[in-house]
């Protein structure tokens, strides 16, 4: 065997172990007994120690030195293995293990604090998480920007300054659109109660409608919806509310976008660096285009209205046009995952600025709640009413995902570019969506984005498909056209 063959064999074993670690995380958020939290923290720490040792194994450096690849795929494999190796060796093994242990325990403490509306109960462990991630970022940055080093985990080859420039370009037009829309009468929303078992039955149908392969996946419930896994085992979660079925349905469609990306990757890349989505920004481009440009379109919501009428009977919406307006209703709210398309990115920008300040030391953990509440009031014009609607609403910081939040809005930006190209490529898109047929759209995305996995760098993925440098203009034009029409602006 060649050095390349030896390296890839070793990498496949490492990737398989990483998938096992991911399955432990899925279990922790879905069915793990609450009393198992401390033991699970030790299990996660143990497997992280094994993974860190493998990813920093000196043999990897030797294989990289001697491995050669003549194909585009082989060269991309070496590029990504080298990137991971060079990052891993900068982080001490005991630090990597400590992060895994503390973040596993912190997740359970966050969930309890959120349920109890008790910020003070969560802050001590968040202090630990922040300190550990600062230490990791400093080790990775080696004198450079700590937050940039952490962003690299989620959006390779991108800096906070680049992200900030995109957000600065977006904010004025988003704020202006939000003000104009909220100055108009708001359409009616759904009323009544919606059986949760019936919601889950319809949500399974939605998952399949958008191309999710349930033979290689499953749908469960969790406090915070997420997607987990790759290849032949890709699982999603959703959540239900008796009075808000859209929470369930659009969380599901969103997570199916993530899951279909993983299921759509070329099987030849399985258990290799190319066998997963290339970045969280590109991942979010899939979940957001599934959820919004497709799932919240006038065409598709007409089909969904008929499905909901068949399932729940009269639920207070007169017809398909009124339903489309209800699905896309712009209204005040606290929760990022429930935010409308106009305001969603403003929620992300808030988190981006706060976590940058946490990582730089400009914001201390004990001041986080006040900083969140002040910023929220400044951005949205009303006060946070309780911690679960404020700084305790998201799981991300408890599990140490600093640098992750901005990829949500990058995903929206990427989705705007992709949707512009998709509409040009599939002129009959609306006719098909009106019949509940997403196959042309999801097939196009699978062919042009999903099958490539990690083969191309994130921005190159979007550039190759859309023919443009990724930027916010297509997204902003889409939002202004859609909501300008809906609200008669």
Automatic annotation (TrEMBL):
Signal peptide interval: none
Alphabetical list of Gene3D superfamilies matching this protein: 1.10.1370.30
Record keywords, A-Z: Carboxypeptidase, Hydrolase, Metal-binding, Metalloprotease, Protease, Zinc
GO molecular function, a single term: metal ion binding
Details of cofactor binding: Binds 1 zinc ion per subunit.
Active site location: 255 (proton donor/acceptor)
Binding residues annotated for Zn(2+), in chain numbering: 254, 258, 284
Required cofactor names: Zn(2+)
EC number: 3.4.17.19
Keyword Zinc carried by entry: yes
Catalytic activity: Release of a C-terminal amino acid with broad specificity, except for -Pro
GO biological process: proteolysis
Family (UniProt): Belongs to the peptidase M32 family.
Protein's job: Broad specificity carboxypetidase that releases amino acids sequentially from the C-terminus, including neutral, aromatic, polar and basic residues.
Protein name (record): Metal-dependent carboxypeptidase
Organism: Ruegeria arenilitoris
């Amino acid at each position: 065997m060649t050095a390349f063959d030896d390296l890839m064999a070793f990498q496949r074993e490492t990737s398989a172990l990483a998938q096992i670690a991911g399955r432990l995380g899925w279990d922790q958020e879905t069915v793990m007994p609450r009393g198992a939290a401390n033991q699970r923290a030790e299990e996660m720490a143990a497997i992280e120690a094994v993974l860190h040792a493998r990813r920093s194994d000196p043999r990897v450096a030797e294989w990289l030195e001697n491995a050669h690849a003549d194909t585009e795929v082989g060269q991309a494999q070496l590029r990504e293995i080298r990137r991971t190796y060079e990052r891993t060796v900068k982080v001490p093994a005991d630090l990597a293990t400590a992060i895994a242990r503390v973040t596993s325990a912190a997740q359970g403490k966050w969930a309890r604090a959120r349920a109890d509306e008790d910020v003070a109960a969560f802050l001590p462990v968040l202090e630990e998480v922040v300190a550990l991630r600062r230490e990791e970022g400093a080790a990775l940055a080696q004198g450079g920007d700590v937050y940039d080093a952490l962003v690299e985990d989620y959006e390779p080859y991108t800096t906070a300054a680049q992200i900030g420039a995109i957000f600065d370009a977006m904010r004025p037009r988003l704020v202006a659109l939000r003000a104009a829309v909220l100055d108009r009468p708001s359409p009616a929303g759904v009323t009544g109660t919606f059986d949760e078992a019936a919601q889950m039955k319809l949500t399974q149908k939605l998952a399949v409608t958008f191309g999710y392969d349930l033979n290689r996946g499953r749908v469960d419930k969790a406090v915070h919806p997420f997607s987990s896994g790759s290849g032949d085992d890709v699982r999603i979660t959703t959540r239900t509310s008796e009075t808000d079925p859209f929470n369930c349905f659009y969380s599901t469609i969103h997570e199916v976008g993530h899951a279909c990306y993983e299921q759509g990757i070329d099987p030849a890349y399985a258990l290799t660096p190319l066998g997963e989505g290339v970045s969280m920004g590109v991942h979010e481009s899939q979940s957001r285009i599934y959820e919004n440009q497709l799932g919240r379109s006038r065409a598709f919501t007409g089909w969904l209205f008929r499905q909901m009428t068949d399932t729940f009977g009269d639920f207070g919406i007169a017809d398909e046009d009124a339903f489309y307006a209800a699905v896309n209703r712009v209204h005040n709210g606290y929760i990022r995952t429930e935010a409308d398309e106009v305001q969603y990115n403003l929620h992300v920008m808030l988190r981006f600025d706060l976590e940058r300040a946490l990582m730089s030391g400009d914001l201390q953990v004990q001041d986080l709640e006040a900083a969140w509440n002040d910023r929220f009031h400044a951005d949205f014009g009303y006060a946070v009413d309780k911690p679960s609607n404020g700084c305790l609403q998201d799981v991300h910081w408890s599990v140490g995902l600093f640098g992750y939040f901005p990829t949500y809005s990058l995903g929206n930006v990427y989705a705007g570019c992709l949707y512009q190209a998709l509409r040009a490529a599939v002129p009959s898109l609306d006719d098909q969506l009106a019949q509940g047929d997403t196959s042309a759209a999801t097939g196009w995305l699978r062919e042009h984005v999903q099958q490539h996995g990690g083969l191309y760098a994130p921005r190159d993925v979007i550039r190759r498909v859309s023919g443009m440098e990724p930027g916010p203009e297509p997204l902003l034009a889409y939002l202004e056209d859609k909501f300008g029409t809906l609200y008669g602006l």
